[in-house]
Design brief:
Layout (H helix, E strand, L loop, with lengths): L7 E4 L5 H11 L3 E6 L13 E2 L2 E2 H6 L4 E4 L5 H12 L3 E4 L5 H4 L4 H7 L4 E6 L14 H8 L1 H8 L11 H25 L4 E5 H6 L3 H12 L16 E5 L5 E5 L3 H11 L14 H13 L3 H8 L5
Parallel strand pairs: 1-2, 1-6, 2-5, 6-7, 7-8
Antiparallel strand pairs: 3-4, 9-10
Helix pairs in contact: 1-8
């Protein structure tokens, strides 16, 4: 028996963060009813690339769900939704703050219909505060948290945008799933549901603990800026290209791993300067020379039995 078998979720969300969250819940056994606007539906349906005329993203994150259309701007639609809420455990929505209140479908209203309902709202900046009703995408959210700045710093000024939606998934999806699971456990103790306010921007801050730590340490030591070892500043945590243009990721922050790498590569003279910031360009050049002189097959064979 799946952990969430018997749990019914009404999913009003679109695109990625919410639908992926309800997909996780479906994987855990929950019964998901995806509710779409009869006119626009989920925008992901029309996003390229498409498979069989339907957006591939839509198909990836909406498997294992039931689906229906419902016009929540009409009294008839609201009436039907009220009947669904009466039998549901969770409502998941991702509209801009204030929309559900204008529709008369906010948490206070729904909890009056069903006191056990768990109501999760996913938004860019949370339900209140100066940015609450501002538009935004993943790029904006990671910009506000400093993650984008750290990426720019690590690339020495060349804008490098992440190829994944860190805020959407890490800040939105995962926090929504965790919040809902926590609320389901809490309901068994308290006998009633609760409101979950998921801010994707707030969620990204948890990913910034390492750079925040370095930043605070730099401030306390009256240094300029903060050092982050995982943004490309260190030779021991960098990518290198082989003779046949294949890429290798060297992730050897720990001394024992970097020492062993250097021993196998014949670069033992680099070990003592692993953390010497003024020596990193020199180290990178020497390590790149090692990789450039060998093919992918040769390098893989050399390290196949090594704990590096």
């Amino acid at each position: 028996m799946a952990a969430l078998e018997g749990i019914k979720v009404l999913d009003l969300t679109r695109l990625l963060p919410g639908p992926l969250a309800s997909m996780y819940l479906a994987d855990y056994g929950a019964d998901i009813i995806k509710i779409e606007d009869p006119f626009l539906g989920d925008y992901a349906r029309d996003l390229e690339p498409k498979i069989g005329g339907i957006g591939s993203l839509y198909q990836l994150v909406n498997r294992g769900k039931k689906s229906m259309t419902l016009n929540l701007q009409t009294e008839e639609g609201k009436g039907i939704f009220r009947q669904l809420v009466a039998q549901a455990d969770v409502v998941l929505e991702g509209f801009r703050p204030g929309v559900m209140t204008r529709l008369g479908l906010d948490y206070d209203t729904l909890s009056a219909w069903n006191p056990r309902i768990i109501y999760c709202s996913i938004s860019g900046y949370g339900q209140d505060g100066p940015y609450a009703k501002k538009a935004g995408h993943d790029l904006n959210f990671i910009g506000f948290t400093g993650l984008l700045f750290d990426l720019l710093q690590g690339s020495k000024g060349t804008p490098l945008l992440p190829p994944i939606q860190t805020a959407d998934i890490g800040g939105g999806t995962f926090h929504a799933v965790m919040g809902i699971l926590q609320a389901l456990i809490g309901r068994e103790k308290k006998g009633k549901g609760e409101f979950i306010d998921v801010s994707m921007t707030d969620g990204v801050f948890r990913f910034m603990l390492l750079p925040f730590g370095y930043h605070l340490a730099a401030q306390s030591n009256q240094e300029q800026g903060g050092f982050n070892p995982i943004t490309g500043s260190l030779a021991c945590y960098f990518v290198y290209q082989s003779k046949d243009q294949r890429w290798f990721a060297l992730g050897s922050l720990e001394e024992k791993f970097f020492s062993r790498f250097c021993e196998v590569a014949g670069l033992t003279h680099l070990i003592e300067n692993q953390w010497a910031l003024h020596k990193q360009d020199e180290l990178k050049n020497e390590i790149q020379a090692f990789f450039s002189s060998r093919t992918e097959e040769e390098i893989s064979a050399l390290f196949s039995q090594e704990d590096v």
